[in-house]
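Provenance and format

Records in this collection were gathered into a single text stream. Each protein contributes a sequence line and a token line. The two records reproduced below are adjacent in the stream.
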Amino acid sequence: MKRTLTRLSPLLAALVLAGCASISPDGLRSDVAQRTEGRLPAGAQLPSPDMKAQQDAQAQVADWLKTPVDGDTAVRIALLNNPGLQAQLAQLGIADAQRVQVLTLPNPSFTFGRFRNGHEREIERQLSFGLVQLVTLPWRSRWQGWQMEQATMTAAQQVLLLAADTRRAWLRAVAAEQALAANERMHEAAALGGELAKRMAQVGNFSKMDQARELTQQQQAAAQLARARLNAQLEREQLARRMGLWGQQLTFKLPAQLPALPKNAELRSGDDAEATALRERLDLGALRRDLDVTAGRQGWATVGAIFGDIGATYSNNTSTERATGHSDKTQGWEFDVPLPLFDWGFAARGMARNQVLRSASLLRENAIRARSEARSNWLSYRTAYDLAQQQQAEVLPLAKLMQEETVYRYNGMFMSVWQLLAQARSTTQAVVTATEAQRDFWLAETDLQLALTGTSPGTSPGMSPSLATTAAPAAAPEAGH
């Protein structure tokens, strides 16, 4: 009895593995959330497949939209409300169901036959099942676990990409509204100058050339205001699209200004940028798992190609003589083993070897790119900070000082009203330039964060470039009967 249990222990273990495979109730969203922990704003959550949770999420989004939406809140809304992200997470749930299907043993087949001739009647009963699916279940379970880990990291990349795209859209939208307000002030100054020039020309105190010059300034300011208004509307639409808003939700408000620049001591250090990228980036982790899966299947490739159709059949046949009624039973086993006469697995072995080489090369290529992107984005980040700090600390105060001095001289009748209006336009343009520099710094900070912990900043939200060129490893050969 003990010897029998020992012989059946591998079979029992395989059956236990097949029985333990189950679909994740949340579609692996909790695993994705674990991968993105610390990389998203505090309180950010992923959409739940539960209907009640979805209704609660919509109520939460409505509450957030009642107040001006800051950058972190915009990311939280996008993660809960973006339909594209919900579709990607649903695809992860599909992959999880496919994993369970692959690990589920195929149903055995039952054959029943009844045959007659002049002397006897024969009843044939056969129960067939594939051995390869059963024997390879522990290995397939491990491979599928690696593949789901890779798919989870890929989904986590999409979450981080959406968060980064939403933050960029929020920064551009707020900066565009700031620029619009500045251009409105600039247009008011230009319109005032044009109206004053028109009245002075009517009474003969202004030449036609001077009037034309002021009217040109007014027309240029009007055109620039129209472009600024259009840009603000388009940037707002981009943000609304990322957050999945429509209808009455489009009336959301934004803060009046961008976040202030951090202090110099609060800036990120570039000393360990490369090491952080190699350690934290999710696209590199997914490629490492792809290499593990491909290397793990290399040894099976040849055996699977040659002996992937091994099957077993149990027969229980009864033959009955019609004349005497005498019955004979025949019981036994049959094994179906392919003979490697033509296919010796050379092609499968070569393909598996090159798949491993491809996965290893992709990992090295993306590691080099991750190092380069970490260095490049840190340089862009640091330069953007220096430029924004220069605008805030030097250029903008200087422009305001010139504005104040111009007002003093105008009040003392040492400068004309035209010089006052020209200086007002110049000061307003300096405000717009400083706002754009401040926006560019925060955009560079977003790109740096993504390059260090997520994936390439220029990646499309649909797919990471490192994974788009990586084909799925070949599935284990199907077992025959």
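Adjacent record:
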Amino acid sequence: MAHTDHQTMRRVLRREIAGTIGLLTDEHDFRAMRRYRSFTFDDHTTYLQQVEELLKTRALQGIHTTVALFDPQEYAEFCTAKGLDPDVPAHRSRFTAELATTGPTIPYEGQPLADLVPTLVDEAVRQATWEYAATLLARLGACATCGEDIGRAAFARASGLLGRILDTAPPGSRHLVCSVTGTPETLVAVLHADDTATGTIPLDEAEVLEFTTVLALGLATQQPGGLVMRTTIPGAPDQIYGWRLRGDDLEPLTAGEVFDAYCTDVESGELISPESGVDYCAPPDLAPENDGPAPPHRH
């Protein structure tokens, strides 16, 4: 009987897949979908197991499947805007198909669902961060003094800074984190840049866009924030250094400030042991090319 039930569940899932499956990654979202009579699953764990089995089956059949993050609230808003009944499986398929072109997706390549889900959620956070930061930049408008677009000028400046940061970084695997304090929450962007045998640094375009946008927002709004670089090379200590956002510029942190930041518990303020095999350093000098065009409000 249980085997028959599982086959039925997979048939239900197949009807809602057209190359992309919209995945309910957490219990809260799963419960939200249970209000629809046509959504026949009643246990999130079983649902995830059946999704994974179906993904494996499709992979064995040579069928490519993309996994998207299914948000019940966005789905309900989509149905309202289109005048659709959300309790119809075909409408869930239509929404999922649109997710494949507009939302964060991950190709299924045989990886366990337990590994795929965090990657998918991270991708969703990245996209939401970029969209939010880009919206705030666009709202800044033009400089009252010179008429130049503040957001566009800040983005150009941030691009120039990022280029100099990468150009002056030690060789190895680079991991950059930019954080900007704001309302309602701190925005964080991450960028990975690894050396190759040819000496080039391949960059993920989406990561670069997000990172530059968040940095530009910090520069344009003069919100508190910082940028930290960690470089790793086999057989040598990791190097960590960084800058604080100071007004519309980057101010180097001293080695002591970097050490304090990494070796102080954020909540208690107590000292914690430094990592072994890590050098806390002052950053390379970004001058004289540390500027893109000056932000309009500096004119």
